[in-house]
Task: structure prediction
Amino acid sequence: MLSSITVIELEHGLHRAQTVEQARNRRRFLDTVFAAIPVERFTRDMAQIAAKVDAAARKTGCVIPFADLLIGATALHFGYGVNIRNLRHFLIGPNLTIFQF
Result:
Protein backbone atom coordinates (compact mmCIF):
# COMPACT_ATOMS: atom_id res chain seq x y z
CA MET A 1 0.00 0.00 0.00
CA LEU A 2 1.18 3.52 -0.77
CA SER A 3 0.09 6.60 1.06
CA SER A 4 -1.41 9.23 -1.22
CA ILE A 5 1.26 11.51 0.25
CA THR A 6 3.94 9.14 -1.08
CA VAL A 7 2.45 9.67 -4.54
CA ILE A 8 3.17 13.39 -4.17
CA GLU A 9 6.78 12.72 -3.25
CA LEU A 10 7.27 10.26 -6.11
CA GLU A 11 5.65 12.56 -8.67
CA HIS A 12 7.75 15.44 -7.36
CA GLY A 13 10.85 13.43 -8.22
CA LEU A 14 9.50 12.94 -11.74
CA HIS A 15 9.01 16.66 -12.26
CA ARG A 16 12.54 17.37 -11.03
CA ALA A 17 14.09 15.18 -13.72
CA GLN A 18 17.12 16.77 -15.36
CA THR A 19 16.52 15.38 -18.85
CA VAL A 20 13.63 14.25 -21.02
CA GLU A 21 15.04 10.72 -20.94
CA GLN A 22 15.19 10.73 -17.15
CA ALA A 23 11.60 12.01 -16.95
CA ARG A 24 10.44 9.31 -19.36
CA ASN A 25 12.17 6.59 -17.32
CA ARG A 26 10.72 7.90 -14.07
CA ARG A 27 7.22 8.06 -15.60
CA ARG A 28 7.48 4.43 -16.72
CA PHE A 29 8.68 3.41 -13.28
CA LEU A 30 5.87 5.29 -11.51
CA ASP A 31 3.23 3.91 -13.85
CA THR A 32 4.48 0.40 -13.03
CA VAL A 33 4.48 1.09 -9.29
CA PHE A 34 1.00 2.64 -9.30
CA ALA A 35 -0.39 -0.25 -11.35
CA ALA A 36 1.00 -2.80 -8.89
CA ILE A 37 0.50 -1.13 -5.50
CA PRO A 38 -2.80 0.33 -4.30
CA VAL A 39 -2.82 3.93 -3.10
CA GLU A 40 -4.72 4.78 0.08
CA ARG A 41 -6.45 8.12 0.47
CA PHE A 42 -5.54 10.31 3.41
CA THR A 43 -8.48 10.43 5.81
CA ARG A 44 -9.70 12.33 8.83
CA ASP A 45 -8.64 9.47 11.13
CA MET A 46 -5.12 9.66 9.71
CA ALA A 47 -5.10 13.44 10.16
CA GLN A 48 -6.01 13.00 13.82
CA ILE A 49 -3.12 10.56 14.27
CA ALA A 50 -0.77 13.01 12.54
CA ALA A 51 -1.90 15.86 14.81
CA LYS A 52 -1.32 13.77 17.93
CA VAL A 53 2.11 12.57 16.79
CA ASP A 54 3.17 16.07 15.70
CA ALA A 55 2.12 17.63 19.01
CA ALA A 56 3.99 14.99 21.00
CA ALA A 57 7.12 15.34 18.85
CA ARG A 58 7.15 19.12 19.12
CA LYS A 59 6.93 18.90 22.91
CA THR A 60 10.30 17.16 22.79
CA GLY A 61 11.73 19.68 20.32
CA CYS A 62 11.44 17.39 17.30
CA VAL A 63 9.90 18.74 14.11
CA ILE A 64 8.88 16.05 11.63
CA PRO A 65 8.74 17.16 7.98
CA PHE A 66 5.07 17.47 7.05
CA ALA A 67 4.98 14.88 4.26
CA ASP A 68 6.83 12.36 6.43
CA LEU A 69 4.39 13.02 9.26
CA LEU A 70 1.44 12.24 6.97
CA ILE A 71 3.07 9.12 5.55
CA GLY A 72 3.86 7.91 9.07
CA ALA A 73 0.29 8.60 10.21
CA THR A 74 -1.05 6.58 7.27
CA ALA A 75 1.20 3.66 8.21
CA LEU A 76 0.18 3.89 11.87
CA HIS A 77 -3.50 3.95 10.90
CA PHE A 78 -3.18 0.68 8.98
CA GLY A 79 -0.63 -0.91 11.30
CA TYR A 80 1.93 -0.97 8.49
CA GLY A 81 5.62 -0.19 8.55
CA VAL A 82 7.45 2.29 6.36
CA ASN A 83 10.42 1.59 4.08
CA ILE A 84 12.68 4.63 4.20
CA ARG A 85 16.12 6.05 3.59
CA ASN A 86 16.05 8.93 6.07
CA LEU A 87 15.54 7.39 9.49
CA ARG A 88 15.45 10.63 11.50
CA HIS A 89 12.28 11.81 9.74
CA PHE A 90 10.34 8.79 10.96
CA LEU A 91 11.23 8.59 14.62
CA ILE A 92 7.62 9.25 15.51
CA GLY A 93 6.96 6.71 18.18
CA PRO A 94 7.39 3.11 19.16
CA ASN A 95 4.30 1.92 17.28
CA LEU A 96 5.73 2.61 13.82
CA THR A 97 7.74 -0.22 12.28
CA ILE A 98 10.63 1.06 10.17
CA PHE A 99 12.47 -0.76 7.41
CA GLN A 100 15.57 1.10 6.34
CA PHE A 101 17.11 0.60 2.91
Notes: The chain has two domains: 2-40, 44-100. The chain has a mean pLDDT of 87. The two ends are 17 Å apart (CA to CA). DSSP finds four helices and four strands in the chain.
